[in-house]
Amino acid sequence: MSFMFSRLSAAKPAATRFVSTSAQSIQKRPSLVLASSVAIAGTALYYYSTMSSVQAAEPVLKGEFVDLTLKEKFDLSENTKLLRFSFADPEAVSGLINASAVVIKYKDATSGKNVIRPYTPISDVNTKGHLDLLVKAYPGGKASVHVTSLQPGETLAFKGPIVKYPWDANKHTEIALIGGGTGITPLYQLMHAIASDPADKTKVTLLFGNATEADILMKDTLDALAAKHPDQIKVVYTLDKAPAGWKGLTGFLSKDVLAKYLPKASADNVKVFVCGPPGMYKAISGTKVSPSDQGELTGALAELGFTKEQVFKF
Question: Which residues face 99 on adjacent strands?
Answer without folding.
Answer: none
